[in-house]
TrEMBL record:
Organism annotation: Ranitomeya imitator (mimic poison frog)
Database matches in Pfam families: UMPH-1
Protein name: 5'-nucleotidase
Primary localization: cytoplasm
UniProt keyword Transmembrane present: no
């Protein structure tokens, strides 16, 4: 296959790869399934020399997150991403740091009260991009109804919307990831000259009471049912929220029309299910078992990932042949273009093993050292390693043979 001649392709054991691919071809579409990571695997790591965002970064960088919060999120990323990719640390050593990162980062997002109805716009305005050749990849797999399992430690809401906006969110795609949990939408009702919050779902009223409690003000509403500044009467958090309203005017009519439509958009209040971070992808047993229990016949697997944590995504799945394709991204882009910059070196120096004691190493040398060491490790663990490859060409050429 000509795609295998590309400079980006590194294979430790070509005979083994050939044997696996032959097994996959023999099984054809009926036996195949794809298990893939999202960030930096299906999505691009860089485009035109610029780093592309992860799912989390899409939210971090959006206009609905305050500058102060963004700064904190970037500081967290600087510290913890260096740990995520550090070749000198074991997965066990990295594990508690990943939990710490996700816990802090998700707590900050919740503090920002991000609204569900902003997701579409935020993703449309972001630089998140799927890898070149994504159309062929998703179209072909859908055409042959090959199950595609996207297992991501990113944000499910963001990645689903990104795939949807790219026009490839087909029914054969299943996503397991960290999904935001939004407050229920709250409907307004006008009764007896009083306007108050009426919750259809249990919990909705509570959500609204929270919103009221936060600014300690009464709310008022304009013609299209949106909240606007109103009579500034402080109220107590648990006080019943109602107030006289002129029910005869156009405003009331507009509100009456709006009854049963969500007027207060859902606001993030947490995350659903078990946390998925980069190094616990063998976990979340329940959701995975449910999905894979229907796919016992699909024992030929193409696994795609970019992190060493992605290698366990197929653990517990019945396997006849598995081909593991790993993207090793351009870590050089992680640091400032100035090779004498110490920012990367500083974070690397925090690690116990400290680059084998080479603490005075320049940042650029440190990164080159890191890539070389990672390539060796990646080639031991992934069957095919793609270095700085922003395309799905290799995966597509293999799928072409199988399907
Ligand atoms: P993945 O499993 O789809 O690759 O997604 C996980 C990536 O998300 C991983 O590289 C870490 C990254 N991440 C951020 O960029 N910002 C954050 O705040 C967190 C918690 C993770
Ligand atoms: Mg990834």
């Amino acid at each position: 296959m000509p795609e295998f001649q590309k400079k980006t392709v590194h294979i430790k054991d070509p005979a083994k790869v050939e044997e696996i691919i032959c097994g996959l071809i023999k099984g054809g579409a009926a036996k195949l399934q794809v298990i893939t990571d999202f960030d930096m695997t299906l999505s691009r790591f860089s485009h035109n020399g610029k780093r592309c965002p992860t799912c989390h970064n899409v939210i971090d960088n959006c206009k609905y997150v305050s500058d102060e919060c963004r700064k904190k999120l970037h500081e967290l990323k600087e510290k913890y991403y260096a740990i995520e990719i550090a070749p000198e640390l074991t997965i066990q050593e990295k594990y508690p740091y990943m939990i710490e990162w996700y816990t802090k980062s998700h707590a900050l997002l919740i503090e920002q009260r991000f609204q569900q109805d902003k997701l579409e716009e935020v993703i449309r305005d972001s630089d998140i991009m799927l890898k070149e050749g994504y159309e062929t990849f998703f179209d072909k797999l859908n055409e042959h109804t090959v199950p595609v399992f996207i297992f991501s430690a990113g944000l499910g809401d963001v990645l689903e919307e990104a795939i949807r906006q790219s026009g490839v969110y087909y029914p054969n795609v299943k996503v397991i990831s960290n999904f935001m949990d939004f407050d229920e939408n709250v409907d307004l009702a006008i009764l007896g000259g009083y306007l108050f919050v009426q919750s259809i779902e249990k919990g909705a009223k509570h959500a609204c009471a929270g919103a009221v409690a936060e600014d300690q003000k009464r709310m008022s509403w304009n013609e299209d049912g949106r909240r606007c500044s109103g009579p500034e009467t402080p109220i107590q958090p648990d006080q019943q929220w109602d107030r006289p309203w002129d029910t005869s005017g156009g405003l009331s009519a507009a509100l009456q029309n709006a009854v049963d439509k969500p007027l207060i958009p859902g606001v993030i209040k947490g995350f659903k299910g078990e946390l998925i971070h980069v190094y616990n992808k063998h976990g979340d047993a329940l959701r995975r078992t449910e999905y894979f229990s229907h796919l016992k016949e699909n024992s030929n697997i193409v696994l795609l990932g970019d992190s060493l944590g992605d290698l366990v995504m197929a653990d517990g799945v019945s396997v006849e042949n598995i081909l593991k394709i790993g993207f090793l991204n351009d870590k050089d882009l992680e640091i400032d273009s100035d090779p004498t910059s110490t920012s990367k070196t500083d974070s690397l120096n925090k690690f116990p093993t400290d680059l084998n004691g080479q603490s005075a190493i320049r940042a650029h040398d440190a990164v080159v050292f890191q890539i070389d060491e990672s390539l060796e490790k990646y080639m031991d663990l992934y069957d095919i390693v793609l270095v700085k490859d922003e395309t799905l060409d290799v995966a597509n050429s293999i799928l072409q043979k199988i399907l």
